[in-house]
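Following up on my earlier thread - several people asked me to post the actual chain instead of describing it. Fair enough. Here it is, all 378 residues.
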Amino acid sequence: MKQRHRSCLLLCGLAILLLSACAGQPPGQREARFDQSQLLNGSRFGLQPVPIETVDLLAVNDDMRAFVRQHVPPNVGDKRKVELILGAILDEGLHLTYDNFKTYTAEEAFYSRQGNCMSFTNLFVALAREAGVNAQYQEVQVPPTWAEQGDTWMFNLHINALVNLPGNEQVVDFNLSDYNKEYHRRELSDNEALARYHNNMGVHWMAENQPERAFMQFKRAIELRPSTGYFWTNLGTLLRRLNEFEAAESAYLAAIDNDQDQVAYSNLARLYGQQGQQALASYYLDQVKLFRTKNPYYLFHLAEEAYAVADYEEADRLLHKALRQHSKDHKIYRLLGLTHLQQGEFWLAEKRFRQAAELAEGEDLERYNHKLELLAAG
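Reply from S.P.:
Thanks for posting it. Predicted structure:
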């Protein structure tokens, strides 16, 4: 089936920083001014409660049931049912289109015919279960991207669906061409997915400058999954925007206490720096630097920069260091092959392109095979 849609990020909407876990106790660490229950009391921070409705991500109504009956015969196997549901959602029936800023329930996505990765997954899981298919949520940690200023790492948590077939499993994604089986992934319960929905809605309302609504969504997410660190971190970001700096600090510390959330370390470094607490800011900034030197994707980013200015020896050094951290990414081998080519090391370049091809799929695999053909002809 032709896949025409871009993948999306579960945590899109906020540029967030990742740091390594803190080793030891930072200098002058203060106790959290607010405990976790106090942080969820918006009236302390001038926020009036805004009621939010109970959400059923996977609710199926009569129109949706009729849609399933129309497109999915009951007497076919689960694999074929998955194909028919996808065809009905993307091409033949709904023509669902991608919109990164729209997080919808299954029912909302069905009628609006648009949405982001979570909206698509909600709709697919709901229709698949209605058709008798065992479909679950799956969270995928996509490799990060580094901003040009060097201080921002987008931590991408993508969500898709996983179908358990007899003796096999099938990943269902808005864009399978962007999915890599080597990415770290795990199944999510329906409750965890619901918490992520409310977190997304919190990000949405924060971007819309509606802090009361954002607060209530983050609160609901935390109530559903209080051990998920980045929910607390996002709450801290909201509180920081409201100039509630002590509350923001407490929320970041809660993120660390609950989940050792690495995002919270960077936000604390920035917060302390803005407050002139240089010892604390320097400590957390050092954690950023430590993390970077051990992260293969940041090393790859530095290698790309070295390659761009023809510093091939430095690129080679950084790429070998990245491979020691992560040896399953074809892009690292590809850049290493190009680096060898630039240095006239053709047999080493061929070796690296073969290693890249072993890990690649689809168009990437074709590209590497073509590169190997050119090397052989030369």
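Residues 70 and 88 are 9 Å apart (CA to CA). That should answer part of your original question.
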